[in-house]
């Protein structure tokens, strides 16, 4: 099918494999990636939630105790009435004993202190850092310390003062005022210590009252310092246990603690904001979170350095005014460890294996398909005529082997049939010579551009077939073939029978000037009689010769020889050499032939009638019917042009019948209508070809019967020159026509090779003297003219004479005086349709009168 895209079998087989492979791989990759992402998200959420919970729990514990301690401290001072203005000694003992018992258990508690309304301050703290012998350091400011804060190396006032801060007023410290303003337990803001270490600290604060009966007076603030740094240690442990980063930030988005050794302070001692942190999770959050407070944990995921970071932010709130956030972040790698890598490796291994499998599959398919492709190629080559194209060798696969074997045997059978077919096509069965096809192929193979082509046809072969039968005809053709073959072989030529009785001869070595000599040689071949059924038979042949030229193909040359042969046959010249104008006339013939066929099929013939006059009376005796045919433009084509073509093509019988029918019908009708006299004579022209047909007389008699026209009023005109062939059927037919009562006129008498001796054999009753003789008549030569001789002949033989082509009154007078009684010619009337006749007949009468004057 044209236009349909064709793909090879191999591609058709392999492509689906590859497509399925690629689709599977794609789906697996996609599924794995999706699965992996879902898994990571799920695990990260669980992990981070549990971590956050852990941190929040720990924070609770971590911060709960200091707050309880502060509360207990405030309560104890009030309950035991430890406070006395500007004297801290009573509280000092209590603080020291409490701190000692608490400190070892709750390492986060760094300091227990009391700041009073009168500006006194007392604190005991853990001070390993400042190299105290037992680790406790007392800080006192009261009336005894003269307005300054003394820091002792030990736990009592007897030890060395290692530092003094002056002036120092606890009421001005950031942790004091809020409690004073709102005397409830609360957390201070985060602040850096006043001493040199600048540790980030947060204090659990509780208001201290002194009660006197029912009256409670606010006297100061109990403070428990918690060093947030110590919480970082806890976070660090978590980080190492879970591979996660943990941060605590306040609602100002500033760092409180982180599981890291890095400080949460910047170079100026200010706490880092999330945005300034070096941790990606925090910088991400700085960009992502707005300032609204989060009440629920939130999970975020974002890509970071080829990995995904999951971040969970959970709020941490206490009823003691803390509002912080716990931030936990973990990377996929930390979360899933080597799982992705292992699964990637598995996938790659799978891919490699799959690819290998595909490759092996393709190789196997290739090997399987190869013999089929080779067989297909062989089939293609065979269709181009290469029968010997090699077929694939034996194959191990049963089906393929079977296919190849079957194909091979099919090829053998096909080759044999093909040879037989070619033999039939290229050889003529009867003579064993080349057929037309074989002849052309052989000539083509010789590729010669010189020499000549001859086309030889046996004249009247149809008659031989008709008279002796087809079997004898075949024998004759075989004998002719044998004679020609013997000669053509000697001449290195090619011989073929190209049609029923036509032989083509190609003589490569013959020069154009030698052609006639060869033609002579052929005649010699046919000079010896052929013996059929013991009877000798002389054959005549027509020969058409065409020279071989470089431009013309064998086909064209053969056609040219055929055209020359038609000319030779038609013109009875026996031999013709092709000239280009023959092709032109042959084309004209072809056109005319198609016009004739069309005219027969569509009833386009017209019949004109030309009056025949009795010269003595001027009466119209009858008329000659003449056939008229127009071309496509409506112009008349002369019967002299189309009758010979009709005769050569076998159409003449149909045309003759049409003509006879029409003219009989027209005349019979006109007689019935009394437009013509009842004894009106009708002349029709009949071709010798029609006369040679065995059935002609029966058909004529049938026509007469049908038309109801008397036989004696019909004359059949036969051209004399064409009758010379002495054909027994023709002669027999003429006698039968006479026997019917129909008259016979010899037409154009004097133009042929008329032999008077032959003439008397013909059963005719009138002669038509050709116009050529009438034209030559003058008053001076009339007596010695051919017309005069014929007139004498007619009176002794007893037939009538019709002078044709009378154009002048003088001619009419002369022929009449010579004894010719009937005439026909333009003088009396041109051939015309019968409807135009009454007037013509009248004119004829008048002219005749003028002529006889
Ligand atoms: P023909 O039978 O000899 O017919 C007479 C021819 O001479 C006619 O030519 C006619 O028109 C022409 N003719 C008659 N009087 C004169 C004249 O005074 N001067 C001149 N110059 N010509 C005259 P047309 O019709 O062209 O026919 C030519 C030939 O064609 C006929 O010759 C006849 O042989 C043949 N033909 C015509 N009709 C038929 C037909 O129906 N069947 C057959 N087989 N042949 C026919
Ligand atoms: Ca005639
Ligand atoms: Ca004539």
UniProtKB/TrEMBL annotation:
CDD domains: EAL (cd01948), GGDEF (cd01949), HAMP (cd06225), PDC1_MCP_like (cd12913). It is found in: Cell membrane. Coiled coil: none annotated. Keywords: Cell membrane, Membrane, Transmembrane, Transmembrane helix. Residues 449-582 form the GGDEF domain. It comes from the Bacteria. Residues 589-845 form the EAL domain. Gene3D superfamilies: 3.30.70.270, 6.10.340.10, EAL domain, PAS domain. It is a multi-pass membrane protein. InterPro entries: Cyclic-di-GMP_PDE-like, dCache_1, EAL_dom, EAL_sf, GGDEF_dom, HAMP_dom, Nucleotide_cyclase, Rev_trsase/Diguanyl_cyclase. Residues 366-419 form the HAMP domain. The chain crosses the membrane at residues 12-31, 346-365. NCBIfam families: GGDEF. This is EAL domain-containing protein. It comes from Vibrio barjaei. The lineage of its organism: Bacteria, Pseudomonadati, Pseudomonadota, Gammaproteobacteria, Vibrionales.
């Amino acid at each position: 099918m044209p236009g349909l895209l064709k793909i090879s079998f191999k591609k058709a087989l392999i492509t689906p494999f590859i497509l399925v492979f690629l689709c599977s791989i794609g789906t697996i990759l996609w599924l794995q990636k999706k699965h992996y992402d879902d898994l990571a998200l799920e695990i990260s959420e669980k992990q981070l939630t549990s971590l956050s919970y852990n941190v929040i729990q720990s924070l609770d514990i971590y911060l709960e105790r200091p707050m309880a301690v502060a509360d207990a401290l405030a309560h104890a001072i009030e309950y035991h009435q430890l406070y006395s203005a500007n004297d801290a000694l009573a509280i000092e003992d209590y603080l020291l004993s409490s701190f000692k018992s608490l400190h070892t258990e709750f390492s986060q508690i760094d300091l227990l202190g009391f700041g009073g309304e009168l500006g006194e301050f007392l604190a005991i703290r853990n001070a390993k850092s400042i190299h105290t012998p037992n680790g406790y350091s007392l800080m006192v400011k009261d009336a005894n310390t003269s307005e300054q804060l003394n820091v002792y190396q030990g736990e009592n006032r007897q030890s060395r003062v290692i530092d003094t801060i002056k002036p120092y007023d606890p009421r001005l410290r950031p942790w004091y005022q809020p409690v004073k303003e709102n005397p409830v337990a609360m957390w201070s803001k985060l602040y850096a210590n006043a001493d040199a270490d600048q540790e980030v600290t947060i204090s659990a604060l509780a208001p201290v009252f002194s009660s006197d009966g029912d009256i409670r007076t606010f006297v100061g603030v109990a403070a428990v310092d918690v060093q947030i740094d110590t919480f970082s240690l806890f976070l660090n442990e978590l980080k190492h246990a879970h591979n996660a980063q943990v941060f605590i930030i306040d609602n100002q988005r500033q760092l409180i603690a982180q599981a890291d050794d890095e400080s949460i302070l910047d170079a100026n001692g200010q706490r880092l904001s999330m945005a300034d942190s070096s941790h990606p999770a925090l910088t991400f959050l700085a960009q992502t979170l707005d300032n609204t407070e989060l009440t629920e944990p939130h999970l975020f995921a974002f890509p970071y350095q080829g990995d995904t970071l999951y971040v969970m932010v959970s709020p941490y709130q206490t009823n003691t005014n803390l509002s912080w956030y716990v931030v936990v972040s973990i990377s996929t790698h930390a979360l899933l460890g080597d799982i992705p890598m292992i699964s990637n490796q598995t996938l790659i291994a799978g891919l490699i294996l799959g690819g290998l499998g595909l490759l092996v599959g393709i190789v196997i398919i290739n090997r399987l398909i190869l013999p089929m492709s080779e067989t297909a190629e062989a089939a293609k080559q065979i269709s181009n005529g290469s029968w010997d194209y090699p077929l694939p060798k034996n194959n191990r696969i049963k089906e393929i082997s079977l296919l190849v074997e079957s194909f091979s045997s099919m090829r053998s059978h096909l080759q044999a049939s093909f040879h037989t077919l070619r033999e039939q096509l290229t050889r003529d069965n009867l003579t064993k010579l080349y057929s037309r096809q074989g002849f052309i192929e052989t000539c083509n193979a010789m590729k010669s551009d010189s020499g000549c082509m001859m086309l030889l046809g046996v004249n009247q072969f149809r008659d031989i077939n008709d008279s002796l039968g087809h079997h004898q005809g075949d024998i004759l053709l075989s004998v002719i073939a044998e004679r020609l073959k013997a000669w053509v072989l000697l001449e290195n030529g090619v011989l073929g029978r190209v049609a029923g009785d036509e032989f083509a001869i190609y003589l490569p070595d013959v020069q154009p000037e030698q052609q006639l000599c060869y033609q002579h040689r052929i005649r010699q071949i046919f000079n010896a009689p052929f013996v059929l059924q013991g009877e000798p038979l002389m054959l005549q042949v027509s020969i058409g010769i065409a020279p071989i030229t470089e431009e013309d193909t064998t086909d064209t040359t053969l056609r040219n020889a055929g055209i020359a042969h038609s000319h030779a046959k038609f013109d009875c010249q026996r031999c013709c050499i092709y000239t280009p104008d023959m092709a032109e006339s042959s084309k004209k013939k072809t056109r005319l032939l198609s016009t004739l066929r069309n005219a027969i099929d569509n009833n386009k013939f017209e019949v004109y009638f030309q009056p025949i006059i009795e010269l003595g009376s001027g009466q119209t005796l009858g008329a000659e019917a003449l056939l008229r045919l127009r071309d496509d433009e409506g112009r008349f084509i002369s019967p002299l042009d189309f009758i010979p073509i009709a005769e050569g093509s076998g159409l003449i019988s149909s045309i003759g019948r049409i003509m006879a029918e029409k003219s009989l019908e027209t005349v019979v009708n006109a007689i019935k209508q009394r437009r013509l006299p009842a004894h009106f004579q009708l002349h029709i022209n009949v071709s010798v070809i029609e006369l040679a047909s065995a059935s002609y007389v029966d058909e004529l008699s049938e026509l007469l019967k049908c038309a109801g026209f008397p036989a004696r009023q019909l004359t059949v005109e036969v051209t004399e020159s064409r009758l010379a062939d002495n054909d027994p059927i023709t002669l027999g037919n003429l006698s039968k026509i006479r026997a019917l009562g129909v008259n016979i006129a010899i037409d154009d008498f004097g133009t042929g090779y008329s032999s008077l001796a032959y003439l008397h054999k013909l059963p005719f009753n009138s002669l038509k003297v050709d116009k050529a003789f009438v034209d030559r008549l003058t008053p001076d030569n009339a007596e010695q003219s051919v017309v005069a001789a014929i007139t004498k002949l007619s009176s002794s033989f007893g037939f009538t004479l019709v002078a044709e082509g009378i154009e002048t009154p003088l001619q009419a007078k002369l022929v009449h005086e010579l004894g010719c009684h009937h005439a026909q010619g333009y003088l009396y009337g041109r051939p015309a349709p019968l409807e135009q006749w009454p007037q013509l007949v009248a004119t004829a009468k008048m002219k005749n009168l003028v002529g006889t004057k």
